[in-house]
Write a structure and sequence with these properties.
With 68 residues, the chain is of the alpha+beta class. The protein contains two helices and two strands, in the order E-E-H-H. It is elongated and about 50 Å long.
């Protein structure tokens, strides 16, 4: 599994590393994307709200209301 790159390192927060399953699909001429960790809950909330047109004031109000 290791020799065939079916298990690869996955970096986690805090400097930890674990093995995870690599995609079994190889496409000629395309760079393979390494697995990455899932985002933490709420990790991209502000970025998504800004892309939806929310201002800093809108985001602050949502945070104050406990919505985010």
């Amino acid at each position: 599994m290791l020799a065939n790159h079916m298990l690869v390192d996955l970096d986690l927060p805090g400097g930890r590393t674990v093995k995870t399953v690599n995609s079994p699909i190889w496409v000629e001429g395309a760079a393979k994307v390494r697995p990455r960790r899932a985002p933490e809950v709420g990790e991209h909330t502000e970025e998504i709200l800004r892309s939806a047109g929310c201002t800093d004031a809108d985001i602050a109000a949502l945070r104050e209301a406990g919505a985010i």
